[in-house]
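Long-time lurker, first post. I've been practising inverse folding by hand and with some scripts of my own, and I keep getting stuck on stretches where the structure tokens seem ambiguous. Below is the full token string for one chain I'm working on. Before anyone asks, I'm not after the true native sequence, just a reasonable design that respects the backbone. If someone could post their per-position residues I'd love to compare against what I wrote down in my notebook.
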């Protein structure tokens, strides 16, 4: 039952290990397939996804020649044809994950063979996690290699550059040197900002979104420069890269997208459907806006709920409301339902919750809601 509930984990099983052994035997007949499969079978069913991958990785290391370059050459020879499309890595290429882990774990003392291995692996799966220890140990050499790859014909290789240097890639080790100083990453992204592939441009935007969490002003400055003469494709990249800052109501990011901090729009009234609610209830927010300026304005309207934390203090969370265009003296009334129900990422606590309205990043109105616990 547990296997069926987690298909990613179940993918790496005894059958997949036998299949991998068969692939290796075709290029390396001396491979001890029976011992390799037994080694994995003894432990794999009790493990989670990452541990299964690492188990197969270690079993490969024990079964292949002790000479790392020779072992890697065998593994490269079984990779097969490159992915024909710009996606599919987690379908057609997922079986290669332990091989990428092999390079990540055992290849650090062999820079050039490992770079060759990652170059071939990423055209069939991805090397975005495996390349990160090389960036830490060999920053200059690895960055030089990545610069050379920015003109590679493979979109998978070009995407490796932007995805592999993301400072806060969610499923991999962080890169503290780029969290502290993102300028080496900016130099790479500059070469990829107008890449012909959306697959690559999306990765560039994700990287910038990561950097913005630590250096918002640097990202806003960079994207302000990119905005001049931007194609439709680059405009999309800029907007996607700013999504974290836009959600925060960062005025600089909103300005890049044309939402001015000085906009002439005011919130004439803001009210909640109730002053008191119980955890689990839904409350309706109503705000009336008017543009009192003599020119039209576009505005991003958000609302923030200041949730009560376990220590009694509050912390704001931004929620999207609407994007509006208002002609001079035009008015609009917006409504929004907000559910105070517990979810996996948020537990509600009783207490006074301030709810405010942001227009282009500026707080223009607020109201209060007393949230109470449910009656047993």
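-- Answer (accepted) --
I ran through it position by position. Result:
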């Amino acid at each position: 039952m547990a296997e069926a509930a987690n298909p990613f984990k179940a993918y790496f099983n005894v059958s997949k290990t036998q299949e991998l052994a068969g692939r290796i035997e075709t290029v390396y007949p001396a491979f001890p397939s029976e011992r390799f499969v037994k080694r994995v079978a003894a432990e794999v069913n009790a493990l989670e996804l990452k541990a299964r991958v690492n188990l197969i990785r270690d079993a490969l290391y024990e079964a292949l020649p002790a000479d790392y370059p020779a072992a890697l050459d065998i593994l490269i020879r079984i990779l097969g044809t490159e992915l024909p499309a710009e996606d599919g890595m987690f379908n057609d290429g997922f079986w290669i994950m332990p091989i990428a882990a092999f390079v990540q774990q055992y290849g650090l003392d062999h820079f050039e063979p490992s770079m060759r291995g990652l170059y071939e692996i990423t055209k069939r799966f991805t090397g975005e996690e495996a390349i990160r220890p090389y960036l830490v140990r060999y920053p200059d050499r690895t960055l030089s290699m990545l610069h050379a790859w920015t003109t590679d014909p493979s979109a998978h290789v070009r995407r490796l550059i932007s995805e592999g240097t993301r400072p806060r890639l969610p499923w991999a080790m962080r890169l503290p040197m780029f969290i502290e100083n993102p300028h080496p990453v900016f130099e790479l992204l500059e070469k990829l900002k107008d890449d012909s592939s959306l697959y690559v441009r999306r990765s560039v935007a994700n990287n910038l979104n990561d950097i913005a969490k630590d250096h918002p002003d640097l990202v806003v400055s960079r994207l302000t420069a990119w905005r001049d003469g931007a194609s439709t494709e680059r405009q999309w990249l800029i907007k996607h890269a700013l999504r974290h800052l836009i959600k925060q109501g960062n005025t600089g990011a909103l300005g890049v997208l044309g939402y001015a901090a000085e906009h002439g729009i005011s919130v004439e009234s803001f009210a909640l459907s109730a002053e008191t609610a119980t955890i689990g209830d839904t409350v309706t927010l109503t705000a009336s806006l008017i543009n009192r300026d003599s020119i039209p304005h576009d505005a991003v309207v958000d609302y923030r709920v200041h949730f009560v934390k376990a220590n009694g203090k509050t912390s704001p969370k931004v929620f999207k409301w609407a994007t509006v265009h208002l002609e001079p003296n035009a008015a609009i009334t917006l409504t929004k339902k907000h559910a105070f129900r517990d979810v996996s990422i948020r537990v509600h606590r009783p207490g006074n919750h301030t709810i405010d309205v942001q227009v282009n990043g500026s707080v223009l109105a607020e109201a209060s809601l007393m949230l109470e616990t449910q009656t047993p």
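A couple of notes from the structure itself: The radius of gyration is 26 Å. Residues 1-5 have pLDDT under 50 and may be disordered. Happy to go over any region you disagree with.
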